[in-house]
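WP5 quarterly update. Target: I78 family peptidase inhibitor. Source organism: Streptomyces thermocarboxydovorans. Length: 71 aa.
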Amino acid sequence: MAPIPTPSAEPDDNPDAYVGLTAGRAEDLARERGWSTVRALPPGAIITMEYRVGRLNFEVKDGRVARAWKG
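Structure tokens (predicted):
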């Protein structure tokens, strides 16, 4: 039987630090800090609710991050 893989640790990072940044700057910074997946979404976007280790989500309004969360 194959072992169950252990997911890699998420970056020690505060999603609130991205609020107010431009979407492009926030994405670049998130990747520099080690996030494997960065997802920019418009306000009210319909998304799946599964938690993905290593993913950082941004709600982008008028080109700036209005909200950020892990998973």
